[in-house]
Amino acid sequence: MGAVVSSTNGSDDGGIVADLTHPLKGDWLSQHAVACNVSKHEIALMWEQYKQLGCNEDGELSGDALMKACKANTTATKIVEMMPRSKDSVLTFQTFCNMSRWLADASIETKVRAAFQCLNKGHPLDIIVVMEILSEIYCDESQEVIERSAKVFMHQVGDMATHSINEQQFVKWARQLPNDTLQTIMDFKCSPNESQEQASSSNPVKKDSKEAPSTKHMLKVSRMASRKDWVLLANKLGFTQDDISLVKEELPGDEKEQVQQILSLWKQRGDDQATLSVLKEALRGSGMAEIADNLDTNA
Asked: What's the CATH class of domain 108-186?
């Protein structure tokens, strides 16, 4: 990710650890844990993530495998292109771990700057790039809506003289976002279960951990979340974009009903796993902490 991310490991020369061991050897994970300064548990979880991306039996992730993992996601492809790789276009497990650790530990502003570097290879963002990004975030919207939104964003954030957004302008815009929202967007755990483990080790089990959300809870969430970006909440509850599109088609134009349907489906799918605490966690994870807190009141 440009100069920012290259600090994680510089250019990837093929991986020092990979020259000393092999995935079939018993010390593969322990050697990487030491080299990357992470726990054995973390390295095991990262190894599972790395394998899911399509690494080969030698523990190497080729450029082709990376691009395949990105599929048609333009933004993800841009991020991959900025990753430090070997001369053979291989992303080693060691580099993958270093990047994961860096993303977990870096400051919010540093990660915002890294995000900017990825979006257009460090170059200022023009309206075409902004439209590409918005099209992937709001894939159900028409091209007309995307273009109009991009123009508004460019006008509010960018330089009208150059019709572009530079890094400083991008960072300034990000700083103006609500802190909870920015923290949620830029939060990256070294391993997928890290946040859950930290929470369970430091916090006692709350009374509502097994409590199912009541009808009153569901109605309150549907009413309040429908005024916000509830698609992110749906994602946090495990719904894909196709699931969300189907709900929108069934209930066109009525966002409150759409959210209510998502919550109803979530309860049906989750059965006893669809608890109030899970719903609150999803709300907080999608930038709706105030709604989660509101569920504790009688309002």
From this structure: mainly alpha
